[in-house]
């Protein structure tokens, strides 16, 4: 009789645990196009220059959430489309954060030869979003920083003035402690430009935040 009681209790406990796990999974939905790091990663110290000509370091990442993207102003497709997406989704993304927390956007140029401070200022100004900061640096500082973000870029060896720059289409999320917390991956469709769309951002951003809390 004693063993039957123990077995019955075990079954009830297992069922309760199963129900709880199911409810938890239902409540905390995983993002479809974003990867949340199991442990936020500290970024190595860096020094870039903003589109206002001011130095930008890890200190500027403290106290706010930051969506960072690597591109260049001469980019024909991914960059202007991604920047337009970030601008268009900004107010809705900001509203998803807890009260009092702010969201910044970093556009990191992978083309310092053409993307001077003034060129970046003109480019950033086009989107009319005060939360955007354009950033540049020499390749000796830029490449290690971009790699530290888990992103990449590569410049063609051609001497043509209209050269293209290969770069990641992903957007990374940096937490208010200045740590790399998540990355939003672009939607890949045959024959189309790889993009993190507004629909992806709005659907996955709250799910990412839920995982980070």
Automatic annotation (TrEMBL):
Pfam family for this entry, one: SCO1-SenC
Binding site for Cu cation: 75, 79, 167
Single GO MF annotation: metal ion binding
Disulfide bonds: 75-79
InterPro entries in alphabetical order: SCO1/SenC (IPR003782), Thioredoxin-like_sf (IPR036249)
Domain of life of the native organism: Bacteria
This protein's UniProt keywords: Copper, Disulfide bond, Metal-binding
Gene3D superfamilies: Glutaredoxin (3.40.30.10)
Family membership: Belongs to the SCO1/2 family.
Name this protein carries in UniProt: SCO family protein
């Amino acid at each position: 009789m004693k063993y039957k009681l123990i077995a019955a209790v075990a079954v009830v406990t297992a069922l309760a645990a199963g129900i709880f796990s199911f409810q938890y999974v239902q409540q905390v939905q995983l993002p479809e196009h974003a990867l949340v790091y199991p442990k936020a990663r500290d970024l190595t110290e860096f020094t870039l220059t903003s589109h206002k000509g001011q130095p930008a370091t890890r200190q500027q990442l403290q106290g706010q959430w930051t969506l960072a993207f690597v591109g260049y102003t001469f980019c024909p497709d991914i960059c202007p489309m991604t920047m337009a997406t970030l601008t268009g989704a900004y107010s809705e993304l900001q509203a998803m954060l807890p009260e009092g927390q702010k969201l910044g956007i970093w556009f990191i140029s992978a083309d310092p030869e053409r993307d001077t401070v003034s060129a970046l200022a003109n480019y950033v100004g086009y989107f009319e979003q005060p939360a955007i900061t354009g950033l540049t640096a020499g390749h000796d500082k830029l490449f290690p920083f971009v790699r530290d973000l888990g992103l990449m870029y590569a410049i063609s060896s051609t001497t043509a003035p209209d050269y293209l720059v290969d770069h990641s289409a992903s957007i990374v999320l940096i937490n208010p402690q200045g740590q790399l917390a998540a990355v939003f991956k672009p939607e890949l469709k045959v024959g189309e430009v790889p993009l993190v769309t507004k629909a992806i951002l709005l659907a996955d951003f709250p799910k990412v935040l839920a995982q980070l809390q």
